Amino acid sequence: MSRLNDDALDQLFREARTANKWQDKPVGEDVLHALYDLLKFGPTSANCCPARFLFVHTPEGKKRLSPAMSAGNRDKTMAAPVNVVVAYDPHFADELPFLFPHQDARPWFAAPEVAYQTAFRNGSLQGAYLIMAARSLGLDCGPMSGFDAAKIEAEFFADTGWKANFMVNLGYADPSGTMERLPRLPFDKACAMV
């Protein structure tokens, strides 16, 4: 595998910022399909793929989503072309005969705490893959908490049992709402080597 060039690394990491304001430029459903078709290849434990993604992009969907948003996040969320609820399926193991066909892995996740930790951890990983895939397709992202998960689950997931983890607004950033890069911890404060 070869190293990405600096332009790609800038787009994915060094120059990318959290978007807070959005251009009035739509994101087509074809882009959302391409986005999922990239992120789905990110690795998960036993290929369990527990993340589920709700793409909210219609006025009707946004009207349903709005009451669940915190006051500080509502306006920017409603202005974003697409809002993604990154969720996880507590019953992800039901899909393992398809996703992990060479062995029956369902018993590995029979204990409720193991299933929860696996779904939350790997679903979070898949949410990060969504951000990187979106950036690779030229989209800007605004990941956030600041919403009422119970309201989202009642409004959108009552039939599926999915659990809301975090949200990502997607679109094309208006640079006037982008902050300067905030500090990051240096290697010696964030890492150890043994």
UniProtKB/TrEMBL annotation:
Location of the Nitroreductase domain: 17-172
E.C. no: 1.-.-.-
UniProt keyword list: Flavoprotein, FMN, NAD, NADP, Oxidoreductase
Domain of life: Bacteria
Cofactors required: FMN
Family classification: Belongs to the nitroreductase family. HadB/RutE subfamily.
Protein's name in the database: Putative NADH dehydrogenase/NAD(P)H nitroreductase C7450_11243
Organism: Chelatococcus asaccharovorans
